[in-house]
Design brief:
The protein is α/β, with parallel strands linked by helices and 348 residues long. It folds into two domains: 239 residues, Rossmann fold (3-Layer(aba) Sandwich), CATH 3.40.50.300; 91 residues, CobW-like, C-terminal domain (Hypothetical Protein Yjia, Chain: A,domain 2). The protein is built from twelve helices and twelve strands. The strands form two sheets. It has a seven-stranded parallel beta sheet with strand order 3-2-4-1-5-6-7, sandwiched between helices. A five-stranded antiparallel beta sheet has the order 8-12-9-10-11, with helices on both faces. Strand 9 and strand 10 form a beta hairpin.
Length: 348
């Protein structure tokens, strides 16, 4: 075996899981952790917001394949913008552990994959890790309706009213850049689609997708981990050929989006909270809500996740004895959210 091949085989493979807000990335990774089939996994979770809700969701899995201390949360900036300050130290922390077989990186919903993949050429990490593949999770139900977010009409109205912006639709640009870098696309929420809807969703993906990339359909993020991990692509070696809208830009920002955290006292009516969360998209420019609530007389946390007006909720794990029984919801939407009004609406 020559030196180049030996070095490639010695590197730890990393799967980058990206996709727009609410597509189901965290749900997919939870399924991977629960079905690791002997692999010893580590996870880097990068969120857009002030607290690590997705990391908390993954830690709630309680799976031996990926214990809690193998999950590293980065909640202070987008990985594609903060590679040196955030990503490399996170990788160092994981690679210092013994016996890691595979690293899964969940990007924020607003991340551009290309700068992150390019970082795998950095001298500090290029001989230690490789990109096994970029997996893009998409919301099939939204795509079937002609949207990549819950309320694109509101987004377009706001964009049209702002003459200072340099491009017409940043949300669609993020979506297209993610698809352009994909090695595999998971079309999630198949159960919400009829055959015509599935055809429309596939067509929306095909407009930005390289012809050789496979599209898998899934329900609740359930994809056989053998189809997700072990692709062996080495995406960093081909990333310059993945053409995106941002190739000519020296840097980018996320000034079109905003996020904040709403603390919640213990609640008595979980369905009432779910209804209030679902109403936010109609009243405000809210794209995504996710987090936990404490329900009176219930020992388990209530996990709440919303994409637009679609809300899912379930009890996920017991509250730990050291935890304060207080809920936290992250609200993500367009810049200029009325934080006070949204907070009042959730606490009503």
């Amino acid at each position: 075996m020559n030196g180049e091949v030996a070095t490639r085989l010695a590197r730890v493979p990393c799967t980058i899981v990206t996709g727009f807000l609410g597509a189901g990335k965290t749900t997919l990774i939870r399924h991977v952790l629960a079905n690791a089939q002997g692999r010893r996994l580590a996870v880097i979770v990068n969120e857009f917001g002030d607290i690590g809700i997705d990391g908390e969701i993954l830690k709630g899995c309680g799976d031996a394949a990926c214990p809690e201390d193998n999950i590293v949360e980065l909640a202070n900036g987008c990985l594609c913008c903060t590679v040196a300050d955030e990503f490399v130290p996170a990788l160092d922390a994981i690679l210092a552990k013994d016996g890691i077989d595979h690293i899964v990186i969940e990007t924020s919903g607003l991340a551009l994959p290309k700068p992150l993949v390019q970082a795998f050429h950095w001298p500090a990490i290029k001989n230690r890790v490789t990109v096994d593949g970029v997996v893009v999770v998409v919301d099939g139900a939204a795509l079937a309706d002609g949207r990549v977010a819950a309320d694109l009409d509101a987004l377009k109205r706001q964009r049209a009213a702002d003459s200072a912006l340099m491009h017409d639709d940043p949300v669609e640009e993020v979506f297209e850049d993610q698809i352009a870098c994909a090695d595999l696309v998971v079309l999630n929420k198949r159960d919400l689609l009829d055959e015509d809807g599935l055809t429309r969703a596939r067509a929306a993906i095909a407009n930005a997708l390289p012809g050789s990339v496979k599209v898998l359909t899934a329900r609740d993020g359930k994809v056989d981990q053998k189809l997700l991990l072990g692709l062996g692509i080495g995406t960093e070696n081909d990333i310059e050929n993945r053409r995106t809208r941002h190739d000519a830009e020296a840097e980018h920002d996320h000034d079109d989006f905003d996020s904040f955290v709403v603390p919640l006292d213990e609640i008595a009516d979980p369905l009432g909270l779910v209804a209030r969360v679902g109403s936010l998209a109609e009243r405000f420019d809210v794209l995504r809500v996710k987090g936990f609530a404490a329900v009176a007389d219930k020992p388990l946390r209530l996990l709440v996740q919303a994409v637009g007006a679609r809300v899912t909720h379930q009890f996920d794990r017991p509250w730990n004895g050291s935890e304060k029984r207080q809920g936290r919801l992250v609200v993500i939407g367009l810049k200029g959210l009325d934080r006070a009004a949204i907070t009042d609406a959730l606490r009503a």
